[in-house]
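User: Before I run my own analysis I want an independent prediction to cross-check against. Here's the chain; please return only the C-alpha cells and, at the end, one sentence I can use as a sanity check.
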Amino acid sequence: MTEIVGAFVSLVGALFFLLSAIGLLRMPDAFNRMQAGTKATTLGSILFLVGVGIMRPEYLGRLLLLVAFIVLTNPVSSNALARAAHGYRERLGARLEPDALAESDAAEGPRGEDHGD
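Assistant: C-alpha cells:
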C-alpha cells in the first residue's frame, strides 16, 4: 500500500514538472517564465522526493534534507535570476509597469549609496 501512495505522490510531482515545462514555453516574458519554472519545480521536487521517501523509508531522512535544501535555495536563485534579467528587460521584452526596482536603483545612485536627503 505504501508503494502505491508513494508512486502516486511521485506522479503528482512529475505532473508539476510537466506544468513547469509548459509554463516555460507559454509565458510571455522572462519574469513570468521564471515564476512558472521556480514555483512548479519547487513543488514538483518536493512531491517527487517525498513520494520516493514513502516508497523507500530508509532514504526518507536524506530526501527530507534535499527537500529542505531545495526550499531554501530555489527562492534565492530565482531572485538572483530576476535581478539579472531586470538589467536586460528591454531586450527580453518584459513589460514592467510600474518598475519599483528601477526607481529604487536610480534613487540609490551608481554604487548603491543613497544620495537622497
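Sanity check: Helices lie at 2-26, 30-55, 60-86, 89-92, 100-108.
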